[in-house]
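Allow me, if you will, to draw on your knowledge of protein folds for a short while. Thank you for your consideration; the sequence and its tokens are set out here:
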Amino acid sequence: MKRRAWQGGLSLFELIVALALLGGVLLMTVTVRFNFQWLLNMGMNQATLFLNTHLALNRVISAIQSANYLEIDAANNALIISKKVGENYIRSSYSLSNGNLYYQPDLSQAPLPSPEIVLQSVTGFQLTGFPTGGTRFQGARVCLEAEDPQGIAHRDAAFQTAAYCRIFHGSYKPVRVVTRDASGHVLTVKGSYDTIQEAINAKTTEHGDVVQVSSNDKTPYVENVKISKALIFEGGYDSIHWERHYADPDNPGQIHEDYETIVNSKNPTYGTIFSGNAAYLPENGNVVIDGFTISSAAKGVYFSGERTMSLKVSNNKISVTGGAVSFVQGSGVSIDVTGNIVGNKEVSGTAGLASLTQTHGTFLIKDNRLENAGRYGFFWPVSLIQCQGSLTIINNKFSQLSGKSANPGKLLGELAVIYISQHESGDILTIANNSFENLSGGTGAFGTVLHLSQSHFTEVVFKNNLARNCINQAGFNYVEISQSSSFADFTFQNNRIVGIASYSNGRVLSFSQSYFDGPLRVNNNDMSYVNGVIYLSAAKWTKDGLEMTNNTAVRGTTAGSGTGVSLNFSKEYAPSLYRNYIHGFSTGLYASGTFSNAISNNVFANNTEYGVYFINAGSSYSDTPTFSNNVVFGSKIGFYGISLYSGDNRIINSVFWGNQKDFDFLGVKG
């Protein structure tokens, strides 16, 4: 009976074995499930660690990119970020402390609020600012390392990247001092500064260093800079890569308008932007001021002092109420004013582009533009007074200049674009390839391109210049020489002079009380709408004489006034007039004095009163005045002579036609 009860079931042994097997299976299932969950947790923590670290680094980088400059506080393992908001800077920070990366949004708050925890369990926050050499940076390399706070992730997170400030203001107005090799490559960055003056005053700044001034996002530097060291000052840099940006990248010179470095004076009425005294510089010191926009001041650059030095002012835009460049009481100086654009508005001083007083040295004024300037009284855009040294003025453009009379009834105003007075002897004056356009002496004021008085030059060259649309009420004498000036050699050549038909323009050349120890050459010039080519009064020669060849002079639509060529001599000399065309004046040629001459192959056309007028002409000397192969027509009297030495004057092979009277002589001598 009992045996049947267990029939078809498990024995006790089998039941025990089955339960053991079931327990093993259950144990294995629990073990596998536990390990899987552990692996899953470890992977999730690793991903979370990497993501959180990456997000924290991205946050730091975004803050850098929206900032204006950076500072690194190495002692506190902190990155200070400054961002310009309006006219102020908001300073925030990311710092590592007690294993956490903290963010403080505004360091100016007092007391500081509790910082925000950006990332926990940070093991490394390494910072490198660049460019190196200063305390404020335009970019940074950031390395951020962190570990899993729960200790599950088996590997730490480590990320590294770099970023630049979007618009770098460095130190608000970033200036740095560098040294360069002969090829122009920067060798060292000696320091970064808030202002140009701080850069000069720094103890580490030495003679010969370069002061690089960034555009500062075109925010003006407001300074009166005192130059006490022989330095090179350069504007127009960007403040990220410290590269200069030119208006024409293929022709370095003027700075691109987006990168102008603007400097204004602290005192716009009386202040000077850059000033210095040569006495503080080393012997043969070199100062260069290049690539700035100088405005809101009385003067741009002003130097003085007797010490051998060189000063170069180049590629600047200058708009001041007084003079752009001035030097007073210098000795042994080399002055180079090149490539500047000067617009003085209504100037208050007598100078516009360059003013040199009691200065000895060499002077170069080249490739400048002076435009839209004028003043009441005397206006001398380029002036040298009581100076000594050779002067070269080439490739400049002078336009829209005006000298105005403070009292029109008394003729007090004067515009002399180049004014030279009491210049000492032994030097060369070269004025070439310039343009003088739209100049005006104003109502009742005199006007000249070159005014030269009481001065002495070994050689004067005035060639390849253009003078056009120059007017004034009293007459515009383009070149005016007076008051005992003397020259060994004077050349006026290849110039084009174009006046205005409706105005009474003056003479092209006017000499009074001038002394020559060599030739006066007037060759290959084209002159129209002028009131005369040359006027000589009380001129004296020790040798050679006047050589006037291949010139064209036309009085223009208001014909019948002025004298084309007026010669008044006080000493024997041998003038030569050859192949000139003189048209439309009252008198074509007027000659007075005891002289011998050769006047040949000229045309005197439609000069209303006299084609040729001689008075007291001729000579008791051996040379014989000769008037040969000339054409004279369209005058009331073709050839008029008074008190001539008949035996010493010859008129040969000349043509007279269309004159009311070809010849008229009065009081022939000999």
Observations:
- The first helix runs from residue 2 to 5.
- The chain has three helices and 61 strands.
- The CA atoms of residues 197 and 225 lie 6 Å apart.
